[in-house]
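Protein Record: Sequence and Backbone Structure Tokens
======================================================
Tokens: labelled as protein backbone structure tokens, with as many entries as the chain has residues.
Question of interest: how does this chain fold, as expressed in backbone structure tokens?

___
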Amino acid sequence: MKDRFGEKIDVALHLVDSEEAAKHELRGSTTVYVNDEWVPLDVATSADRMQTYIEQELTQGEKHESP
């Protein structure tokens, strides 16, 4: 996803026992958050669905930033 979206997104991976992961409720071995919102597993494990999800999040973020 970083290759697709470049500087528009910041990607971080954390192990379940990391300090960063302790701040979140982990729902399984694959847990993905975008803007501190949990992403459903069927989206998180599909490259196509995840790309669409991120595109929608970026579009919504731009709308929120407009005056």
In short: The chain has three helices and two strands. The helical segments are 2-5, 41-44, 47-65. Residues 2-65 form one domain.
